[in-house]
Amino acid sequence: MRKVRFRDWEFEVDSELTRETYAKVIGGFSEGCDCQYCLNYHPQKDEIFPKEIRTLFENLGIDYHKESECLSSFDISEFSNTDEYLSKLHGYSGWFHFYQNILSGKECFDRNSNTYDSTQITENFSIGFRKSKDLNFFEFGIPLVQVEFGAKIPWIIGDMVED
After folding, report:
1. Which residue pairs from 19-24 have beta carbons closer than 8 angstroms and sit at least 24 positions apart in sequence?
2. Which residue of 42, 71, 94, 153 has the fewest CB atoms within a 10 Å radius of its CB?
3. Tell me, what DSSP letter sits at residue 114?
4. 3-class SS at 147?
5. Contact (Cβ atoms closer than 8 angstroms) between residue 102 and residue 6
6. Is the model more confident about 75 or about 152?
7. Could you report the per-residue pLDDT of 97-135, keeping only the tens digit for each?
8. 125: closest CA among 62, 52, 76?
9. Which are the contacts of 67, defined by CB distance < 8 A and separation ≥ 6?
């Protein structure tokens, strides 16, 4: 175990166990999904995560190519035409996990008010941490920290097709 500091947080981390767990995973959620949103997200992984976050993930043992979940927060019905939709940045969220604990720093999810409060890293990327185990790759029963992210990325795969 070692301690990792990131901005206002300090974590207790077993980065080797985390790294070993990710090494066993073939691909992230978006690789197993053929929806348009995941097809758009997947090829942009190397551009989505700022250098500061990739460094943090390296220190935690997280492989940023292997997200546990990835969701789009954009809906084509919000726009009057497909060209307008395709020209906008598209909101995504998702999460990863690492083994152990948050020693200090706020959790991004308030259970009492059922609200999220993530930290803006760049104009198009935010991150938060919470004690949660939603859809994870780890063995049952070990303590985990869920790393939640939000990102805005361009639409790169061509025309949007309504389902």
Report:
1. 19/61, 19/63, 21/61, 21/99, 21/137, 21/138, 21/139, 22/61, 22/62, 22/63, 22/66, 22/137, 23/63, 24/137
2. 71
3. T
4. strand
5. no
6. 152
7. 999 999 999 999 888 888 888 999 999 999 999 999 999
8. 52
9. 28, 29, 30, 94, 95, 96
Token pair belonging to 36: 């348009």
Read off the pTM.
Answer: 0.88
Cα angle for residues 15, 21, 27 (degrees, 5° grid): 120
Q: Alpha-carbon distance 149 to 128, whole Å? A: 6
DSSP state of 142: -
Is residue 1 within 8 Å of 12, Cβ to Cβ? yes
Range of lowest pLDDT (37-51, 72-86, 97-111, 121-135): 72-86
Q: Which two tokens stand for residue 139?
A: 């063995």
Contact 133, 15 (CB under 8 A): no
Instruction: Using a pLDDT cut of 70, give the percent of the chain over it.
Output: 88
Instruction: Take residue 94 and report the two structure tokens written for it.
Output: 């998702």
